[in-house]
TrEMBL record, chains A, B:
Its EC number is 2.7.2.4. SUPFAM superfamilies: ACT-like (SSF55021), Carbamate kinase-like (SSF53633). PROSITE patterns: ACT, ASPARTOKINASE. Keywords: Amino-acid biosynthesis, ATP-binding, Diaminopimelate biosynthesis, Kinase, Lysine biosynthesis, Nucleotide-binding, Repeat, Transferase. It comes from Jeotgalibacillus malaysiensis. GO terms for cellular component: cytosol. This is Aspartokinase. It catalyses: L-aspartate + ATP = 4-phospho-L-aspartate + ADP. GO terms for biological process: diaminopimelate biosynthetic process; homoserine biosynthetic process; lysine biosynthetic process via diaminopimelate; threonine biosynthetic process.
Length: 409, 409
């Protein structure tokens, strides 16, 4: 019997009834003789409601105060779940992020976990208690409350699992597993029984949305077996581990897509040598995530530098680049919005050349223009017009034989 | 120019508009050149809503988890107020109880402040920031989040004022000051310009409800000038200090009343010597507040011991006394509910014998039966049937010349 970490997202704890239901799930695992640590997100729409309130205070709330405000959401749901467990006769203690020993870097709204001090959690587990931990939050070295950014509760769960050497980390969510693609948009999408960390990492990074990339990274680094499963149904879910067997005849595991991409172009960069590092270190300092990067040399000897960011970072990125114009040395900044990224992922690609070619020919057949490309050993991503994202995803998903009917046949 | 501590209660921060209004109040004080620390309660009905949620989890939530849940209320309002101040261009930082250095004893739901570590607040004040602190909460030596009990935000404000050597502590509330009695029930009630700590302490303890007794105690011990004033109107309020001048011809400052009193009687106490301390130490250990105490000797040599408690403590008191029956040694426990306490308070009483006599004769004239009596140098309290509480308060208030018309004449 080991330690199991369970994570329940906002939808799973979205109402009084659902919290009681989660308590049942927790008890099921506890009754198997396991020690259980539960990580919870804020109840359903709580976070949205808090964001709305903040918006009525000021149009640009400071990140520190936003973190202060938002972390109340998880503190609420964790104490309610602990009460529901106590109501069923189980000893339970809820802990905020800082009480559970989650230490982060000194960054608001998007901090990384630097350390997990497990002594308190361990001693409470030794008392036979079910520990309920607030996801998404931690404390920095100055005693400031920080948050881990979107999907941060997954990261909390996996970091705790790693630190406490848990047997497994179960991510309960409103879907029953990881799919070959998003079933809301692609009809043939099917649930995967298994997937490797690396593939999941690409899918998570590519916006599949089921799991936070940092959580997968943590799991990979510490070899924590992750499952993604439904909080509502008693089904198997998807197991994420180092070497997930590939189904026959397939080289691609899944197709992901992500809208609200912006292509930024730094036009007429004066000095390639100093300009490149300048742009990306300034963006990194400001915690702006850059994805695909492309450069093109002009006849003048100057260079254009293009990169993709999330649309939500657009305003900030424009401001930052504007502020550092002299330092970077460029003529102007252009940007194109209304773009999306579509990607194929699969560890089988390495040994199967021609996968990218197949992808491009499918897109060409459907007359979809490719605006940016990026590849890794296990993925190919293209940026297309947002209006063509769904069409592209469907065509690619079918072309690589991922459709439910194709596999079952 | 000194440090001013301002405290705003739940009604004062009850909506987005009201929080903006509070921000104005804070800025007014800041613009006078003062350093300002603001202590806030949870927004309006937040606490009630959280209590309701807890009730849907379990009928008997553990106090620790209740504290965990309820403290989110102040954390919300403090961050929202800090945002409202930032929106107006003022540097502001919100702090939870533990971040503001509020240390308490290791008791849930009703902890006392043991220490205030001011270093963080001081260094933030030195940066010219307005500090917004979550009232009602603190942290014990084990890193547990605790709450200070009803009205605890007042205590937070005064404790901070004392620790930081503030010039004044302003308690903003939905009434415009301390009244000679509760104006909702007694027509002639009038606002007092001043009142002494001791009188206020008796009034607060007697349920006048404007200020938490512990807050007044703290203010008295550290000589902090307190004002109680309206958060909505620009009026003077009531100043609470050591020696508040008495208005002419008056010996009584105010009349307080408090319903939901229960008279408990320990019938047939076997051993007076050991039984008395046993009863009260057991109740104290369980943090049950006992008010009036009366004993009566029976012919058998045994003793009946009566004492009054709040009705909310009745169930717990019955259980505790039942559990310790052998240890205390008694025949049975009786209790009478539906009782209320009516009290007169005034420092003038000491030098004016006959005050109690006047009170009893007024009650007799109105045929109100007195069930328990208790006196101190500056107060006389009687316990009466709850149905007669308002009648008694009105009669006494008028009899001691406290009515508005009487004083103005």
């Amino acid at each position: 019997m080991g330690i199991i970490v369970q994570k329940f997202g906002g939808t799973s704890v979205g109402s009084v009834e659902k919290i009681h239901h989660v308590a049942n799930r927790v008890i099921l695992e506890k009754e198997k003789g396991n020690d259980v640590i539960v990580v919870v997100s804020a109840m359903g729409k709580t976070t949205d409601e808090l964001v709305r309130l903040a918006g009525e205070m000021t149009s640009r709330p400071e990140k520190r105060e936003m973190d202060m405000l938002l972390t109340t959401g998880e503190q609420m749901s964790m104490s309610l779940l602990a009460m529901a467990l106590q109501n069923r006769g189980y000893k339970s203690t809820s802990l905020t992020g800082w009480q559970a020993g989650i230490r982060t870097e000194a960054v608001f709204s998007n901090a990384r976990i630097t350390e997990v001090k497990t002594n308190r959690v361990e001693s409470l587990l030794n008392e036979g208690r079910v520990i309920v931990v607030a996801g998404f939050q931690g404390m920095d070295e100055n005693g400031e409350i920080t948050t881990l950014g979107r999907g941060g509760s997954d990261t909390t769960a996996v970091a705790l699992a790693a630190a406490i050497n848990a047997e497994r980390c179960d991510i309960y969510t409103d879907v029953d597993g990881v799919y070959s693609t998003d079933p809301r948009y692609v009809t043939g999408a099917r649930k995967l029984n298994g997937i490797s960390y690396d593939e999941m990492l690409e899918l998570a990074n590519l916006g599949a949305g089921v799991l936070h990339p940092r959580a997968v990274e943590f799991a990979k680094n510490y070899g924590i077996k992750l499952t993604v499963r439904s909080s509502m149904e008693e089904t198997e879910g998807t197991l994420i581990e180092e070497d997930a067997p590939m189904e026959e005849h397939l080289v691609v595991r899944g197709v992901a897509f992500d809208k609200d991409i912006v292509r930024m172009t730094v036009v007429g960069l004066e000095n390639e040598l100093t300009g490149f590092p300048a742009v990306f270190s300034i963006l990194a300092e400001n915690h702006i995530d850059v994805d695909i990067i492309i450069q093109s040399k002009l006849d003048t000897g100057k260079v254009n530098l293009s990169f993709s960011i999330k649309e939500s970072s657009l305003d900030e990125t424009l401001q930052i680049l504007g502020r550092h114009k002299d330092e970077i040395g460029y003529q102007e900044i252009e940007h194109e919005t209304n773009l999306s990224k579509v990607s194929i992922v699969g560890s089988g690609m390495v040994s199967n050349p021609g996968v990218a070619a197949q992808m491009f020919s499918v897109l060409a057949k459907h007359e979809i223009q490719v605006k940016m490309v990026s590849t890794s050993e296990i993925k190919v991503s293209v940026v297309v017009d947002s209006n063509e994202m769904i069409k592209a995803a469907n065509a690619i998903h079918e072309s690589f034989g991922l459709n439910r009917s194709a596999v079952e046949a």
